[in-house]
Amino acid sequence: MCGIVGYIGNKEAFFVIIKGLKLLEYRGYDSAGVALQNGTLEVYKKKGKVAELEAFVMEQKHDGAIGIGHTRWATHGEPNDMNAHPHTSMHGLFTIVHNGIIENYAKLKTDLTEQGYVFSSQTDTEVLANLIEFIYRQDEAINAEMAVQLALSKVVGAYGIAVLCSAENDKMIVARKGSPLVVGLGNGEYFVASDASPIIEFTNQVVYLNDEDIAVIKRDSFTLKNVRNTPVSLKISHLNLEIGELEKGGFEHFMLKEIHEQPRTIEETFRGRLRSDESEIVLGGLINIFPKIVKAERIIIIGCGTSWHAALIGEYLLEEYAQIPVEVEYASEFRYRKPVIRPTDVVILISQSGETADTLAALHLAKEKGATVLGICNVVGSTLARETDAGVFTHAGVEIGVASTKAFTAQVTVLTMFALKLARERKTISAEDYSLLVRELSQIPEKGRLILQSNDKIKAIAEKYKDAVNALYLGRGYLFPVALEGALKLKEISYIHAEGYAAGEMKHGPIALVDDNLPVIVVAPQDDYYEKIVSNIQEVKARRGNVIAIVTEGDKVLKEMVTDFIEIPASHPAVAPLLTVIPLQLLAYHIALMKGCNVDQPRNLAKSVTVE
Ligand code: M6R
């Protein structure tokens, strides 16, 4: 939610910031703004995309070697020019960009209003800007960083901020709590961003700020401490990111690129972990902690959105093969519902970004209760990766499309390896089944490539159903979460109302929706549930519903029975989610494109949900 970029050095800050904001636009795209320091502080902000801001600022004075920028996902106040960041304090002393939510903003605003402050936006961020200024003006001995520090001590909520002070115009102050911030260390220059993508072009040396860190950055110095004034040791990390990963690589959209990358990214996920001789699965990040995991009495898997769907697949895998009780939780529910968590529990947090606020809160709760906390995460250096006891990176590469695709298949790949390894250690899987599943998993990339060749056929099916108002997705067993994921993909990028259901549940309600206008997408490969799902399809057909089925290659029965079908290669049911989800991703992509939707940046969404 919201992307921040800052620059201090000798380059023209505007160009560094605009380029960076475009890379962070996945975090929010309601409005964008920039503040540039060059003797005076110029602030430009606009509703809409970064490109609109860029065109606007190009016609203005935009020099200056210090600046901050922001791309917004609106929380407080509708998306308009006034609510866009940066926000400047009433007397013009402080200008800030902010990612997060100041929860006690209303009380702070009332207090400041009593002190004569007048507000021009509806944002919580303007309150923070004025609070910093109010404190600064109380006492000449208080400098800009002290004012920021004192203001933050009064704030309840989450923030990643970059602050400029017009009276101390050689520095930038940055701080974080709950919202990510990375500082890139250049030669006589520093870069600040919500993630490392805007920084990699300039330097691969970065410092990830921890919660409550505050840094004062000048051209020639970088000092870091804690908002409570305790010293913090500087840990420099090296980025391992290719600039090419941030480009579309010849595809029309990032989402399409990321769908097509899956055979390779799944390979990356199991590279070096899934041994070709099938002898052992090596999950390096878990080696030291594995004896504890083996003894766990229960596993709780937590995530949001697509990551939650991956968690459900993890539950099925772990219960079937490792025979360990598993519970799957929405992070947003878990964190508040006072769950029972014991020190003998292993809690697995799944998050592509590693920055989802609810997931991080669930992590903190589980840690507090003494559970062993593990992460399955895509972003190296993210908060989740740093705060869990141990974990496994998914290695899917940067995912830019807001609709998650390759991150999902990478998460499921990790969960499959984890379940098999645990099953092996707990001696709950036979040697034959273990070898079979390892082999099946290693064949997924090749089979995935074959499915991608159906793109044109899926496009033709999309053309037939693009005007649907509703859609129903059905699956059973391992493919029930795939039905949920297919429905989520369709609704988030095409704005068609879609529901995913366990096929056996259809008769308990959703069947009432079935008529000749309703596309019913059924994930129906030839597995143990095949006969049952064929019956479900018959039930839909009897009510004149249109069935689009994902079927196993060569399935003559379903090809005859359904309105449209997409074939996939045969696979073991436990790895079938990795294949069956691909046609559903492509179907959603083509429908959204045909409806003229912004596939990579769907309305109202943001890639990284760092607010509650
Ligand atoms: O970064 P995370 O995996 O924690 O994100 C969780 C959800 O916000 C995310 O999966 C969201 O549902 C996607 N837009 C789904 O495509």
Question: Overview of this structure, please?
Answer:
Helices cover 36% and strands 22% of the residues. It has 612 residues and is an alpha/beta fold. The protein has 3 domains: 3-244, Aminohydrolase, N-terminal nucleophile (Ntn) domain (Glutamine Phosphoribosylpyrophosphate, subunit 1, domain 1, 4-Layer Sandwich); 248-442, Glucose-6-phosphate isomerase like protein, domain 1 (Rossmann fold), CATH 3.40.50.10490; 453-600, Rossmann fold (3-Layer(aba) Sandwich). It has an 8-stranded antiparallel sheet with strand order 3-2-4-1-10-9-11-14, covered by helices on one side. A 6-stranded antiparallel sheet has the order 5-6-7-8-12-13, covered by helices on one side. Strands 16-15-17-18-19 form a 5-stranded parallel sheet, with helices on both faces. Helix 8 runs antiparallel to helix 16, helix 12 (406-426) packs antiparallel against helix 13 (431-442) and helix 15 packs across helix 19 (577-594). Residues 304-307, 351-353, 356, 359, 402-404, 488, 492, 605, 608-609 line the site of 5-amino-5-deoxy-1-O-phosphono-D-mannitol.
Q: How would you summarize this macromolecular structure in one to three sentences?
A:
The protein is of the alpha/beta class and 612 residues long.
List the topology elements.
Elements: E1 3-8, H1 13-24, E2 31-38, E3 40-47, H2 50-58, E4 66-72, E5 87-88, E6 94-99, H3 105-114, H4 124-138, H5 144-153, E7 159-165, E8 171-177, E9 182-185, E10 190-193, E11 205-208, E12 213-218, E13 221-226, E14 237-238, H6 254-270, H7 290-294, E15 298-303, H8 305-322, E16 326-330, H9 331-334, E17 345-351, H10 357-368, E18 372-377, H11 383-387, E19 390-393, H12 406-426, H13 431-442, H14 444-452, H15 455-465, E20 470-475, H16 480-494, E21 497-502, E22 519-523, H17 530-541, E23 546-552, H18 556-561, E24 564-568, H19 577-594
Parallel strand pairs: 15-16, 15-17, 17-18, 18-19, 20-21, 20-22, 22-23, 23-24
Antiparallel strand pairs: 1-4, 1-10, 2-3, 2-4, 5-6, 6-7, 7-8, 8-12, 9-10, 9-11, 11-14, 12-13
Helix pairs in contact: 3-4, 4-5, 6-12, 6-14, 8-12, 8-16, 12-13, 14-19, 15-19, 16-19
Bound molecules: 5-amino-5-deoxy-1-O-phosphono-D-mannitol (M6R).
Residues 304-307, 351-353, 356, 359, 402-404, 488, 492, 605, 608-609 line the site of 5-amino-5-deoxy-1-O-phosphono-D-mannitol (M6R).
